[in-house]
Amino acid sequence: MNRRDAIKRLTLLMGGAVIGADTFLKGEVLTGKQAKLDLTAQELSLLDEIGETIIPATHTPGAKAVQIGAFMKMMVNECYDDANQAVFQAGLVEVDAAAQRQFGKIFLQLSPGDRTTLLNAIDAEEKKYRAQLPAGAPAHYFRLMKQLTLLGYFSSEIGCTQALRYVEVPGAFRGSEPYKKGDRAWFVSPNHFI
Predict the structure, then answer these.
(1) Using N-to-C axis directions, what is the helix angle for 68-79 and 141-154, rounded to 10°?
(2) Which of 89, 90, 102, 136 is in the most buried spot, having the most CB atoms within 10 Å?
(3) How far apart (Å, rounded) are the C-alpha atoms in residues 89 and 76?
(4) What is the pLDDT of residue 180?
(5) Distance between start and end Cα atoms, the chain
(6) Which residues are CB-contacts of 123 (< 8 A; sequence separation ≥ 6)?
(7) pLDDT tens digits, residue range 18-71?
(8) Confidence at residue 1, expressed as pLDDT on a 0 to 100 scale
(9) Which of 133, 154, 138 is nearest to 19 (CA)?
(10) How many angstroms separate the CA atoms of 157 and 163, rounded?
(11) Single pTM value for the model
(12) In 3-state terms, what secondary structure has residue 31?
């Protein structure tokens, strides 16, 4: 199964809750957009580091290992309408502006602890924004970044086979599987459900 099929199936399992999912689930590329998101190497690096702060490397590789910035760029270009694409692009500028306001440095110059502190503050801001979101308004830029980080990471080979417990061919149904605190969640190939 290729990555696109895996993402499509993962998005279906999530109930299509990802912004841009309607386009992606149809297997289409959004047409009629004004322009494609063109990111510099530094902006891709910024997205990699944002993703790495959201899903850091531990005993398994983090989001940077799956080149999450390139994944985000592809998804924004193929699945986001002009309004959400503009919000995402403005969010790149806003992350650095928030880092400057709080720490006097851009995001890439912050320590891992300061990055976490900053993104936690932005996440709290996003939750307030979502609670007051008027109908039809685009999502907060950090919601877009978080969703794409999770989708990209857990649909990658690393996410499926190292972060989750991978079972290529599941055995018999066991409705009460033992679980110990700290066990990883299971990943079953979406082909199993077809």
Answers:
(1) 110
(2) 89
(3) 9
(4) 80
(5) 12
(6) 142, 146
(7) 555 444 444 555 555 566 888 999 999 999 999 999 999 999 999 999 999 999
(8) 44
(9) 138
(10) 9
(11) 0.73
(12) coil
* 1-18 pLDDT tens trace: 455 555 555 555 554 455
Q: 87, 86, 117: which is closest to 99 by C-alpha?
A: 117
Element (H, E) at 165: strand 165-167
pLDDT above 80 (res 179): no
The total number of residues shown for the chain amounts to: 194
Using CB atoms within 10 Å of the CB of residue 55, give its burial: 0 to 12 exposed, 13 to 18 middle, 19+ buried. buried
Helix (H) or strand (E) holding 187: strand 186-188
Q: pLDDT tens-digit profile of 110-164? A: 999 999 999 999 999 999 998 888 777 888 999 999 999 998 998 888 988 888 8
Hunting for tokens 């079972």 — which residue is that?
A: 167
CA–CA gap between residue 9 and residue 13 (Å, rounded)? 6
CA-CA-CA-CA torsion for 161, 54, 36, 96, nearest 10 degrees?
A: -160
Host H or E run for residue 113: helix 112-131
CB neighbour list of residue 136: distance below 8 Å, 6 or more residues apart: none
